[in-house]
TrEMBL record:
<dbReference type="InterPro" id="IPR002126">
    <property type="entry name" value="Cadherin-like_dom"/>
</dbReference>
<dbReference type="InterPro" id="IPR015919">
    <property type="entry name" value="Cadherin-like_sf"/>
</dbReference>
<dbReference type="InterPro" id="IPR050174">
    <property type="entry name" value="Protocadherin/Cadherin-CA"/>
</dbReference>
<dbReference type="Pfam" id="PF16492">
    <property type="entry name" value="Cadherin_C_2"/>
</dbReference>
<feature type="domain" description="Cadherin">
    <location>
        <begin position="451"/>
        <end position="560"/>
    </location>
</feature>
<keyword id="KW-0812">Transmembrane</keyword>
<feature type="domain" description="Cadherin">
    <location>
        <begin position="347"/>
        <end position="450"/>
    </location>
</feature>
<dbReference type="InterPro" id="IPR013164">
    <property type="entry name" value="Cadherin_N"/>
</dbReference>
<protein>
    <submittedName>
        <fullName>Protocadherin beta-4</fullName>
    </submittedName>
</protein>
<dbReference type="Pfam" id="PF08266">
    <property type="entry name" value="Cadherin_2"/>
</dbReference>
<feature type="domain" description="Cadherin">
    <location>
        <begin position="133"/>
        <end position="241"/>
    </location>
</feature>
<keyword id="KW-0472">Membrane</keyword>
<dbReference type="GO" id="GO:0007156">
    <property type="term" value="P:homophilic cell adhesion via plasma membrane adhesion molecules"/>
</dbReference>
<keyword id="KW-0732">Signal</keyword>
<dbReference type="Pfam" id="PF00028">
    <property type="entry name" value="Cadherin"/>
</dbReference>
<feature type="transmembrane region" description="Helical">
    <location>
        <begin position="688"/>
        <end position="711"/>
    </location>
</feature>
<feature type="domain" description="Cadherin">
    <location>
        <begin position="575"/>
        <end position="675"/>
    </location>
</feature>
Length: 796
């Protein structure tokens, strides 16, 4: 892309100074020669050997051959190292008349960059014959012309050079003229016709001679032209140019038909012999196409665009002829002045379109710049924008390398558009811009990153298996396979933890699933680590902590610890009829396996034999008398207490209490209803006799024990001892049972309990409350010393 806009601030390198420096520092060029018209594919040289390189190094380093004229005339076989001709070379087409004809080329290698300069001398073949511009020349000579007079003739053109070029002219034998070959300062050979004898028009008015041009080839080639000579009457004075040579400078961008200059010749003769007409003399085709001369005025005008880069000056021969046929010769030297009309050119020789990130200094492109103008118009400055991680380095003559200034990061920028600007120093300045797109390929240099360092997931217990409980997520800033994340469960630190049986993870999206139904009462929380790995090589990974909290569900009904419901006989509580309102009968102790409000228990009296006689405290399960007892109250009371939690929906359990109302603890208590039912059942006579005998013996034993206990209690005289259980004396170990605030009791209690020795019931009796931490030791000592209780328990 070319533009004439003002260039932006950038890093600039002055090309022409570095070119001179590098040219002086470069080694001598390698030189070869070849005959023109040699067939394409012909062998020129073995570069591997001539450059001192190793076998296969040309191929490994991507060697290239570039000619100065930008035409690929040469071919490099990287495998063999041979330099070959790509096409037939025509010396005349390449160099024209320039001798010697040298084709300059460069051999450059990459990784690392290295340049070699070469020259190919194209040797001339004699493949062109001399050619005259006209098949016939007309020459008018006055009859009074003296012997020795020289008459210039039109020269022949031979495209060959050196010995194969034009060497001499000859003319057919005659007695009046001979030809001389005159060497001009520009290297051309001109034929001059020399008069040998006095002419007599009346004797011979016309001569026809054959002019032959010979080159120096072997065999020589020739060209001929007919010279027709007319003998004229006497015209004493030939026209003469006022100035010779004329010198003029013309801008190369001058418009067509612009006036170059006006030539002027004078003839002192009179009449028609003094009238002068102008023409171009022995003009080449190039001059004829470029300039024209007015026959009358002598004005020379431009008929073709000038190009300083092709032709820098013209030598135009003019001729002024009078009416008598005499002529004078003049020279016009036209110098073409260079104008900055050529923008710089940029040719890419090597280009890498993709660079891996984090790579060290890398050659992106090798290119050459050129400006066909001269002087300041041909001086160039090459630059790229400052805000890019790339730099330009001059390497060899007008060659530059574009390299990375620092490692690239694809995650920061994946693509760079680099504009190379080449600006000349002419007026106005011209510039050329070339855009290069460089892609940064991805390298796996970023590990996946979780969105959180730790995750907390909540799962309600009793979940269904394979339940989706949550997700983890990680992202990778790389691209392609380097950014594809795979999730996995990491092995737990404790090998005994069966993590694989609890949860699983989807490796593609990080979804977590509970494999089994979780139980809050068995496992309230667990944690594990998950890993996220990409698919790069080598793979990178990261970890995150996942904590799973199990939410409680109301899936456990209250469980009654006391009174026991699975005993062989129901528990019976004894209550003296003299008990005051609020008398503590017993306490229902229950627990709930759930947590939180699901474990908050409340108690209520569901059924009672005498409604209003007993009450249950809702928060601690204590069963107390609600009023004074009377003789009308039935001695047997049956209470059903409901224990209910605070879950949603609430779960409950019930417990049945049997209460016997007695006048005093010395009164034998009534058998429980179950015992009466058993007694009422029919039995065989033998069983009845055995039961009666056993009852008699037992009653006697019990009465004796009661008398003994009563005597001991009376001695102590305590009101609390009146409620002791009259049981037979026996050697039973004493125990203290502590039932602390199980369930949701509002405060702690301790109770002194004795187990009766009656074989029919074996039930607990609460005798008196014991305050915590004050009377525990004394109470235990008292119970252990008392022979009236077989077993003692303390509940709190």
């Amino acid at each position: 892309m070319e533009t004439l806009e003002r260039s932006q601030p950038n890093r600039q390198v002055t090309t022409f100074i570095l070119t001179v420096f590098l040219s002086q520092a470069s080694p001598a060029p390698i030189r070869y020669s070849v005959l023109e018209e040699t067939e394409s594919g012909s062998f020129i040289a073995h570069l591997t050997k001539d450059l001192g390189l190793g076998i296969g190094e040309l191929n490994a380093r991507s060697a290239r051959v570039v000619c100065d004229d930008d035409k690929q005339r040469l071919l490099l076989d990287r495998q063999t190292g041979d330099l070959l001709l790509r096409e037939k070379l025509d010396r005349e087409d390449i160099c024209g008349s320039v001798e010697p004809c040298v084709l300059h080329f460069q051999v450059f290698l990459e990784t690392p960059v290295q340049f070699f300069e070469g020259e190919l001398l194209i040797q001339d073949l004699n493949d062109h014959s001399p050619v005259f511009p006209n098949r016939e020349m007309l020459l008018k000579i006055p009859e009074n012309s003296q012997p020795g007079t020289v008459f210039p003739l039109k020269l022949a053109q031979d495209l060959d050079v050196g010995s194969n070029g034009l060497q001499k002219y000859t003319i057919n034998a005659n007695s009046h003229f001979h030809v001389l070959t005159r060497n001009h300062s520009d290297g051309k050979k001109y034929p001059d016709l020399v008069q040998d004898k006095v002419l007599d028009r009346e004797e011979q008015s016309e001569f026809s001679l054959t002019l032959m041009a010979l080159d120096g080839g072997s065999p020589p080639r020739s060209g001929t032209s007919m010279v027709r000579i007319l003998i004229l009457d006497v015209n004493d004075n030939a026209p003469e140019f006022v100035h010779t040579p004329y010198e003029v400078q013309v801008l190369e961008n001058s418009p067509l038909d612009s006036l170059i200059l006006t030539v002027l010749a004078r003839d002192v003769d009179a009449g028609s012999f003094g009238t002068v007409s102008y023409s171009l003399f022995q003009a080449s085709e190039e001059i004829k196409q470029t300039f024209s001369i007015n026959e009358v005025t002598g004005e020379i005008r431009l008929t073709k665009k000038l190009d300083f880069e092709q032709i820098k000056s013209y030598h135009v021969e003019t001729e002024a002829t009078d009416g008598g046929g005499l002529s004078g010769k003049g020279t016009v030297v036209i110098e073409v002045v260079d104008v900055n009309d050529n923008a710089p050119e940029l040719t890419i020789s090597s280009l890498i379109s993709s660079i891996p990130e984090n790579a060290p200094e890398t050659v992106v492109s090798i290119f050459r710049i050129r400006d066909r103008d001269s002087g300041d118009n041909g001086k160039m400055i090459c630059s790229i924008p400052d805000n890019l991680p790339f730099i330009l380095r001059p390497t060899f003559k007008n060659f530059y390398t574009l390299v990375t200034d620092s490692p690239l990061d694809r995650e920061n920028q994946a693509e760079y558009n680099i504009t190379i600007t080449v600006t000349d120093m002419g007026t106005p300045r011209l510039k050329t811009e070339h855009n290069i797109t460089v892609l940064v390929s991805d390298v796996n240099d970023n590990a996946p990153a979780f969105t959180q360092t730790s995750y907390t997931l909540w799962v309600r217990e009793n979940n269904s298996p394979a339940l989706h409980i949550g997700s983890v997520s990680a992202t990778d800033t790389d691209a392609g396979a380097n950014a594809q994340v795979t999730y996995s469960l990491l092995p737990p630190p404790d090998p005994h933890v069966a993590l694989a049986s609890l949860v699983s993870i989807n490796p593609d999206n990080g979804h977590l699933f509970a494999l089994t139904s979780l139980d809050y009462e068995a496992l309230r929380a667990f944690e594990f680590r998950v890993g996220a790995a990409d698919r790069g090589s080598p793979a990178l990974s990261s970890q995150a902590l996942v904590r799973v909290l199990v939410e409680d569900a109301n899936d456990n009904a209250p469980f009654v610890l006391y009174p026991l419901q699975n005993a062989s006989a129901p528990c019976t509580e004894l209550v003296p009829r003299a008990a005051e309102p609020g008398y503590l009968v017993t306490k229902v102790v229950a627990v709930d396996g759930d947590a939180g409000q699901n474990a908050w228990l409340s108690y209520q009296l569901l059924k009672a034999t005498e409604p209003g006689l007993f009450g249950v405290w809702a928060h601690n399960g204590e069963v107390r008398t609600a009023r004074l007892l009377s003789e009308r109250d039935a001695p047997k009371q049956r209470l059903v207490v409901l224990v209910k939690d605070n879950g949603e929906p609430p779960l409950s359990a019930s417990v049945t209490l049997h209460v016997l109302l007695v006048d005093g603890f010395s009164q034998p208590y009534l058998p429980p209803p179950e015992a009466e039912a058993a007694a009422a059942a029919p039995a065989d006579p033998l069983t009845v006799y055995l039961v009666v005998a056993l009852a008699s013996v037992s009653s006697l034993f019990v009465f004796s024990v009661l008398v003994f206990v009563a005597v001991r209690l009376c001695r102590r005289g305590g009101a609390g001892s009146a409620g002791r259980c009259p049981v037979p004396e026996g050697h039973f170990p004493g125990h203290l049972v502590d039932v602390s605030g199980t369930g949701t009791l509002s405060q702690s209690y301790q109770y002194e309990v004795c187990l009766t020795g009656d074989h029919r019931t074996g039930e607990f009796k609460f005798l008196k409350p014991i305050f915590p931490n004050l009377l525990v030791q004394d109470t235990e000592k008292e119970i252990k010393e008392s022979p009236n209780c077989r077993n003692s328990f303390v509940f709190s």
